[in-house]
Every structure is written in structure tokens, then in C-alpha cells.
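Practice problem 4.
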């Protein structure tokens, strides 16, 4: 059976087990407020967020990690009163940059240069290509592109949560502008895109016992062999 190991963590996941874990996960409606994520678990999620692949590797996303009960309580009315944001151990607010310009792209290439010692002669044409491409896009299409990267991080986190036995609920039902205001995100050059509540399911969450509703794989996958 295929297995893979995470270096230095001593954890290994079996391929068949991954499907079981993905079946175990569900959009948690009721968290046990008394159960908190350990620092180690929280750090796995934070690292996973940062390891998410992004288009061109530009990482136009950041994540606000909220463990503070007062702040979580304030999020409740801004989240259609969805109790998850209050009862979850932590609430992640995945954000995108408010500005994606040549300077941001340059900073990213400087990081590549510094990290990999790649000569500027190799990086410069690629950087110019990306700057040029973005200069032709509208603000709306750049925002959409950035939001896609935020959702990719959300998907990545959902899978990692499942593998790590952490419950989670992705949340689109919130008021982004009000989140931005409460968390002062504009001052950080950010705006909220999607939310993820993480923690541990309450024993009496009715949704944990419900069957998964999915179309058959033969319906959603078109194989060309
Ligand atoms: C992007 C996204 C946004 C979602 N927003 C909410 C939400 O605001 N509140 C909620 O209770 N569930 C939300 N969900 C959960 C979905 O309803 C749920 O994932 C879907 O019904 C499939 O069920 P399962 O995740 O339990 O398998 C969201 C899911 C995704 C992927």
C-alpha cells in the first residue's frame, strides 16, 4: 500500500486512510467551545496555509488567526449569527491584498533571488512578463484572480484539517466589509475573502452523523483513456 511520510514530523498517512479522513470531515455546525487546538496543531495549519501553491508563486494572500474570545464574539453578528465563529477554537480569515502592483511583484522576485540565489538575468524577463500581464488586467479581474488563490488555500486547509483530525467549517456567509472594519484589515493592505472556523466538533452536532451527499464519481469525473 502506498504511504508517504512528512519529513521530521514522524507522521505518515496511508492512501486508503485519506479517503476515510475525507469522509470523516464535514462542515461542522457546532464546535465544542471547551476544546482548543494545541499550539502544535495550530502551527501545522499555519504552515500549511503558507505552503499552499499560488499562481506564479506570488502569494497574494494572508491569513488572520483569531483565538481571542471577545473578537470571536464580535464576529457573530457579522457572520449571519453562525455560531461556529464563536464556538470554534480559532477562526481563520483568509485575505487578499488590496493592491497588486509592480512593487509587490518585484518584492516577490527579490525573495526568489534571495532564497535561491537565482541570477537577475534569469529573473528579470519573467518579472517583466508578469508586470506586463498584470498591467493589462482590470482591478476586478486581478481581485478575482487573488480570490481564487484564497480559495485554494481554503481547500488545502480543509484537507490538512481532515488529515490532522481537526474539525472545520468553511464560511462564505459573512460580511467582508464589516470584517475588514472590525479587524482593521485595510490598514494592513488586506481585505477578507473567506473564513474558516477550526476546532473540535461538539458531541451533539446533528450534522456529524448525517450521510455525505455527493454525486457519484462516475457522474463528476470524465475519463479519457
Ligand atoms: C466556499 C464555501 C463556503 C461555505 N460557507 C458556509 C457557510 O457560510 N456556513 C455553513 O454552515 N457552511 C458553509 N459551507 C459548507 C458547505 O455547505 C458544505 O461544505 C457542503 O454542504 C458539503 O458538505 P460537507 O462539507 O459537510 O461534506 C461552505 C463551503 C464552502 C466550500
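Answer key:
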Amino acid at each position: 500500500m502506498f504511504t508517504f511520510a512528512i519529513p521530521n514530523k514522524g507522521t505518515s498517512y496511508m492512501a486508503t486512510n485519506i479517503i476515510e479522513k475525507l469522509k470523516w470531515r464535514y462542515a461542522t455546525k457546532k464546535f465544542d467551545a471547551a476544546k482548543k487546538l494545541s499550539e502544535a496543531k495550530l502551527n501545522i495549519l499555519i504552515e500549511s496555509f503558507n505552503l499552499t501553491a499560488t499562481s506564479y508563486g506570488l502569494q497574494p494572500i494572508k491569513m488572520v488567526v483569531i483565538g481571542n474570545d471577545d473578537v470571536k464574539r464580535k464576529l457573530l453578528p457579522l457572520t449571519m449569527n453562525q455560531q461556529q465563529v464563536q464556538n470554534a477554537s480559532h477562526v481563520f480569515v483568509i485575505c487578499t491584498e488590496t493592491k497588486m502592483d509592480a512593487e509587490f511583484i518585484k518584492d516577490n522576485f527579490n525573495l526568489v533571488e534571495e532564497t535561491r540565489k537565482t541570477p537577475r538575468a534569469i529573473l528579470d524577463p519573467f518579472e517583466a512578463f508578469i508586470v506586463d500581464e498584470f498591467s493589462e488586467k482590470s482591478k476586478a479581474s486581478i481581485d478575482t484572480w487573488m480570490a481564487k488563490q484564497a480559495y485554494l488555500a481554503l481547500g488545502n486547509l480543509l484537507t490538512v484539517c481532515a488529515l490532522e483530525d481537526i474539525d472545520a467549517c468553511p464560511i462564505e456567509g459573512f460580511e467582508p466589509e464589516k470584517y475588514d472594519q472590525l479587524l482593521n484589515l485595510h490598514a494592513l493592505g488586506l481585505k477578507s475573502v473567506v473564513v474558516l472556523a477550526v476546532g473540535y466538533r461538539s458531541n451533539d452536532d446533528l450534522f456529524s452523523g448525517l450521510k455525505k451527499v455527493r454525486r457519484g464519481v462516475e457522474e463528476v469525473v470524465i475519463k479519457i483513456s
